[in-house]
Design brief:
two-stranded antiparallel ribbon, 95 residues, 2 helices
Length: 95
């Protein structure tokens, strides 16, 4: 049995006469996005003055960078899947 642990639990859904609306949890999305942007900024900072060598991988060839990107991509995939699932089960807006 799958628990409802997806990010869409923290999303506020609203159905009005104007249509369906949702407000995502801003803190989680911003935190994960800033984590990725911060990691890229760090990689640029470290590699800015160093020539390519075997000791330092290229900008996007770091396992930690890939992990953080995977975390961000996974968050948004699960979030969008939750939105899709909620929109399929929500009552249609009355016109």
């Amino acid at each position: 049995m799958v628990q409802k642990s997806e990010p869409s639990q923290l999303t506020r859904f609203e159905t009005t006469e104007a249509g369906r609306f949702y407000t995502p949890n801003t803190r989680i999305g911003v935190a994960i996005s800033l984590l990725f942007v911060g990691r890229l900024a760090y990689r640029f900072w470290v590699l800015r003055a160093q020539p390519q060598s075997l000791e330092h991988p290229a900008l996007l060839q770091s396992p930690l960078t890939y992990f953080i990107f995977g975390l961000m991509a996974g968050y948004y995939l699960v979030y969008n899947f939750g939105l899709f699932r909620h929109s399929r089960t929500a009552a249609p807006a009355q016109t």
